[in-house]
UniProtKB/TrEMBL annotation:
GO terms for molecular function: ligase activity. Residues 99-306 form the ATP-grasp domain. Pathway: Cell wall biogenesis; peptidoglycan biosynthesis. Keywords: ATP-binding, Cell shape, Cell wall biogenesis/degradation, Cytoplasm, Ligase, Nucleotide-binding, Peptidoglycan synthesis. This is D-alanine--D-alanine ligase. The keyword Magnesium does not apply. It is found in: Cytoplasm. It comes from the Bacteria. Belongs to the D-alanine--D-alanine ligase family.
Length: 312
C-alpha cells in the first residue's frame, strides 16, 4: 500500500502542517505502509497522476486542508482520501455555519456574531462594537471565522481592548467571530471511525500555564500540561464523548474529527468548534487521545487509510 501524505500548504498553519505530516508518515512507516510526503502546490495533480497512490492522508491545516476545495479536487481525480467529504468539510470549516447546525441539533455552543471587515468599517467601528458588547456582553473571544491553532484569537475583558483584538483577527481573515467568552476547563474529544462506526477517544484536558491556550501554548513543549483522560467524573466524560459523537454526525463527518469544548463553572459543556483535520504533532491532542486509549497511532492511521480505499 502506498499512501501520499499531504502536508504544508500556504496557510498560516504551514509549519504545524509539516510537523503533522512528518508524524503521520513516520507512524505509517512503522506499521509497514509506504508513504510519500507531498506539498499541496501546483505540481500536486501531476504528482498524483505519476505516483498513483492508493490513498491520500490529508495532514493540511487551515484552508488547504479543511475548506473542502482540495477534497473536491481529489474527488474529481478519483483519489480516495482520509477525512470528511468536500461539502461536509466546508460546513465544519465555517465556524458560524457549524455553530448554527450544532445549536439546531441541541448542542450547546456560546452565543456569537460574525462580523466581516467591510461591515465593521462601513457601519462605523465604534458604533458596531458598542452594539456587539450590549448584545453578547463581556468578556468576548474574538477569532477568525476560519482557521485554527489559536491564530488571531484574543480574549477581550474590557471594551477598550476590542478594537485591537479586531485588528489582530482581521490580519488572519476577512471575517471575525465574536463569541461569548466562557471561563472554565478546556477539553478536546477526538472521534475516529475505522469501519465499526464513530468512536470517541478519551477526553483530553488542557491546562495552559497562563490560562490561555494560544498558538505558543499549543506547540511549545513545557508550556501546557495535558491530562488524558481528563480529570473529570465518569458521568462528565461520558457526556463529553456523546457530545463529540453527536457533533461528528450532525456535521456529517467521517473517519476522524476533534471537538473542542469548554466546561464552565456550573459544569455545563459548550462546543467551540469541530476540526476535520486535527493536528498530529508531538503536542497535538488527537495523538494524545490515541495513546490514552492504548492504541498505536500508526495502526489507527493505517485503518483510516484502508477505510478510505474501501469507500472507493
Amino acid at each position: 500500500m502506498h499512501v501520499m501524505v499531504l502536508a504544508g500548504g500556504l496557510s498560516y498553519e504551514r509549519d504545524v502542517s509539516l510537523r503533522s505530516g512528518r508524524r503521520v508518515s513516520d507512524a505509517l512507516r512503522r506499521v509497514g505502509v509506504e508513504t510519500t510526503t507531498v506539498d499541496a502546490d501546483a505540481d500536486l495533480l501531476s504528482t498524483l497522476h505519476t505516483s498513483q497512490p492508493d490513498a491520500v492522508f490529508i495532514a493540511l491545516h487551515g484552508a488547504p486542508g479543511e475548506d473542502g476545495a482540495l477534497r473536491g479536487v481529489l474527488d474529481a481525480a478519483d483519489v480516495p482520501y482520509v477525512g470528511a467529504a468536500a461539502a461536509e468539510s466546508r460546513l465544519a470549516w465555517d465556524k458560524p455555519v457549524a455553530k448554527t447546525l450544532l445549536r439546531r441539533a441541541g448542542i450547546d455552543t456560546p452565543d456569537w456574531m460574525a462580523l466581516p471587515h467591510e461591515t465593521f468599517r462601513e457601519l462605523g467601528a465604534a458604533a458596531v462594537l458598542e452594539r456587539v458588547v450590549k448584545s453578547i456582553g463581556l468578556p468576548l473571544m474574538v477569532k477568525p471565522v476560519n482557521g485554527g491553532s489559536g491564530l488571531g484569537a484574543t480574549p477581550v475583558f474590557d471594551a477598550g481592548e476590542l478594537p485591537a483584538a479586531m485588528m489582530s483577527c482581521f490580519a488572519y481573515g476577512g471575517t471575525a467571530l465574536l463569541e461569548r467568552f466562557i471561563s472554565g476547563i478546556d477539553v478536546a474529544v477526538s472521534v475516529i471511525d475505522a469501519g465499526d462506526g464513530p468512536q470517541a477517544l478519551p477526553v483530553v484536558e488542557i491546562e495552559p500555564a497562563d490560562g490561555v491556550y494560544d498558538y505558543t501554548a499549543r506547540y511549545t513543549a513545557g508550556i501546557t500540561r495535558w491530562h488524558a483522560p481528563a480529570r473529570l467524573s465518569p458521568e462528565k466524560l461520558q457526556q463529553l464523548a456523546e457530545m463529540a459523537l453527536q457533533a461528528h454526525t450532525t456535521l456529517g463527518l467521517r473517519d476522524l474529527s476533534r471537538m473542542d469544548a469548554i466546561i464552565d463553572t456550573d459544569g455545563r459543556a459548550h462546543v467551540l468548534e469541530v476540526s476535520v483535520s486535527p493536528g498530529m504533532t508531538e503536542t497535538s491532542l488527537t495523538p494524545l487521545a490515541v495513546a490514552a486509549a492504548d492504541l498505536d497511532l500508526g495502526i489507527v492511521c493505517r485503518s483510516l487509510v484502508e477505510r478510505a480505499i474501501e469507500r472507493r
